[in-house]
Amino acid sequence: MSNQTAIIKAVCISEKKGQQKHPVASIHLRPSHGIDGDAHAGNWHRQVSLLGQESVDKLQKKISIPLFPGAFAENILCEGLTLFELPVGTKLRVGTALCEVTQIGKECHADCAIRQQAGDCVMPREGIFAIVLEEGEAKAGDQVTVTEIQ
User: Fold this and answer.
1) Are 38 and 70 in contact (CB under 8 A)?
2) What helix, strand, coil percent values describe the chain, rounded to 5?
3) How far apart are CA 109 and CA 4, in angstroms?
4) Domain of residue 107, CATH code
5) CB neighbours (10 Å) of residue 39?
6) Are 11 and 75 in contact (CB under 8 A)?
7) 3-state secondary structure of 53
8) Are strands 76-79 and 48-52 parallel, antiparallel or unpaired?
9) pLDDT tens per residue, range 83-124
10) Domain limits at 57?
């Protein structure tokens, strides 16, 4: 893997599970919790979701509706790192927080708002999920840096 750093394009939250997220100015990440104010926060293995802009761009070429940050219910949209190639256990510095990759991809539920609107969803194939190890903040323009690969 040649590039070990990505730039955060957007940080997003949603108040309810199963819906698209919306961009916010910044997010606060907490260990054993995830992102303050996000519906997916909690003490479980998918506290934070990350998706590459490259994955969104691939799908955007195939569909006519515009895809905006948060469209795939990702918390962090970033560019410059092939996220889904990172092995589980990889540690990432996300803004000032430290996270650990816990899952690559996920099952997509049939009634997913994103799949209904776009006809496809990249999160099951190319999204990654992480837990928060060290508290911190992240915003658009910050970096996501691989600090340790398992």
Assistant:
1) no
2) 15, 35, 50
3) 31
4) 2.40.33.20
5) 16
6) yes
7) helix
8) parallel
9) 999 999 999 999 999 999 999 987 665 556 666 666 666 777
10) 5-148
